[in-house]
Specification:
Layout: H1 27-36, E1 43-45, E2 55-59, E3 65-76, E4 80-87, E5 90-100, E6 102-108, E7 114-120, H2 122-134
Antiparallel strand pairs: 1-2, 2-3, 3-6, 4-5, 6-7
The structure holds zinc ion.
Length: about 140
């Protein structure tokens, strides 16, 4: 499973929630997402390797990854800030996008626990970028 590149129409599709009991069916997808999250890439959504499921992965360090399953942004702060972004699916393209500085996200982990976290700054921008992927929205029109 390789990266899907712009302007492939699949990138515009809306991903579906996965059921708790089906989590284990997607282990191979997570393996492929990790494989493609190399170099300077910070985050990847399942749709970028062709799976229409509401899952994305954010890299914290070389070995540590955070998996977000069925994430929802339940709160957004008032302030927005410019975020200079690229996308694995759109090589050599960068642009400024206004993102919320702070958000609260609810999501499931791989162990099926439900989490609610407050996030600010750079990682908040990454999560908003990936949330857009789950809804078929790209940084390039
Ligand atoms: Zn992207």
């Amino acid at each position: 499973m390789n990266i899907i590149y712009f302007p492939n129409k699949k990138l515009r599709s809306i991903s579906k929630k996965i059921k708790l009991k089906e989590f284990n069916n997607y282990n191979h997808v997570i393996v492929y997402m990790k494989k493609n999250l190399i170099g300077n890439n910070i985050a990847i959504s399942a749709i970028q390797i062709g799976f229409r499921i509401r899952v994305f992965l954010v890299k914290k360090s070389f070995l540590k990854h955070y998996l977000f399953i069925n994430p929802i942004i339940i709160w957004r702060g008032k302030k927005k800030k410019k975020s200079y972004e690229g996308c694995i699916s759109i090589p050599n393209y960068y642009r400024n996008i206004k993102r919320y500085k702070t958000i609260i996200v609810e999501y499931f982990c791989k162990n099926k626990s439900y989490n609610r976290i407050f996030i600010k700054g750079f990682i908040s921008f990454c999560i908003q970028h990936e949330m857009d992927h789950l809804n078929g929205i790209l940084i390039k029109v």
